[in-house]
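Re: [ENG-882] Designed sequences occasionally contain unexpected residues at chain ends

Forwarding the minimal case from QA. Structure tokens:
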């Protein structure tokens, strides 16, 4: 647990470093853009201007508990929250799912909102296992909350390089895996706009308050 907390702390520190570099105008907008960014030149109305390209979630393709293939297209133009877990997790996952249920109940009827929960143990967490797990949580279908399985290395990769979240095998950890307890808030264009500790009620309260800030904006604003 100590190692887990240190890794999560390091991850949050790196994200906060980028957060602190965001411009005042971004902060006034309500939520910063987190992750890496780059400055590029482009031509607008015949003039060369400098534009900022923000970190985006890479392309992905996984399978949810209803057997549907979920790709970037499924969440394109939508606001969503991502996290990483496994169904046999003996430590933080039950707390995370209790807290994520609060998010689900609040926004389940909004067609512009989704939740993507990635299993880091896809060998065990098959489609049927995820279906049984989601139903025990009271999730009848995958219309809003997708429990995802797929190629393990690709899940690890997207966790670490796109969502900037810890997701890996670790035989020294309970259950054999080490993963972040972060809930990651993604805007309509695939940018990270917030990271919250999914095991802390007060941080999930903040997430619930921040989601409408993105839902109120259309594609052009994000």
């Amino acid at each position: 647990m100590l190692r887990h907390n240190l890794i999560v702390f390091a991850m949050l520190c790196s994200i906060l470093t980028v957060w602190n570099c965001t411009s005042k105008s971004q902060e006034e907008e309500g939520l910063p853009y987190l992750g890496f960014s780059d400055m590029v030149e482009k031509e607008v109305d015949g003039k060369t201007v400098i534009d900022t390209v923000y970190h985006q979630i890479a392309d992905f393709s996984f399978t949810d508990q209803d057997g549907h293939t979920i790709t970037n297209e499924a969440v394109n133009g939508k606001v969503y929250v991502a996290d990483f877990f496994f169904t046999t997790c003996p430590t933080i996952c039950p707390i995370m799912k209790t807290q994520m249920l609060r998010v689900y109940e609040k926004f389940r009827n909004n067609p512009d909102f989704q939740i993507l929960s990635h299993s880091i143990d896809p060998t065990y967490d098959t489609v049927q296992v995820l279906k049984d797990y989601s139903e025990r949580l009271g999730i009848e279908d995958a219309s809003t909350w997708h429990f995802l399985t797929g190629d393990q290395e690709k899940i690890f990769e997207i966790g670490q390089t796109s969502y900037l979240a810890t997701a890996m095998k670790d035989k020294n950890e309970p259950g054999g895996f080490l993963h972040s307890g972060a809930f990651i808030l993604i805007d309509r264009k695939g940018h990270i706009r917030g990271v919250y500790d999914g095991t802390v009620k007060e941080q999930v309260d903040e997430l619930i308050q921040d989601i409408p800030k993105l839902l109120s904006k259309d594609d052009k604003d994000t």
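QA comment: On inspection the terminal residues look reasonable. DSSP finds seven helices and eleven strands in the chain. Proposing we downgrade this to a documentation issue.
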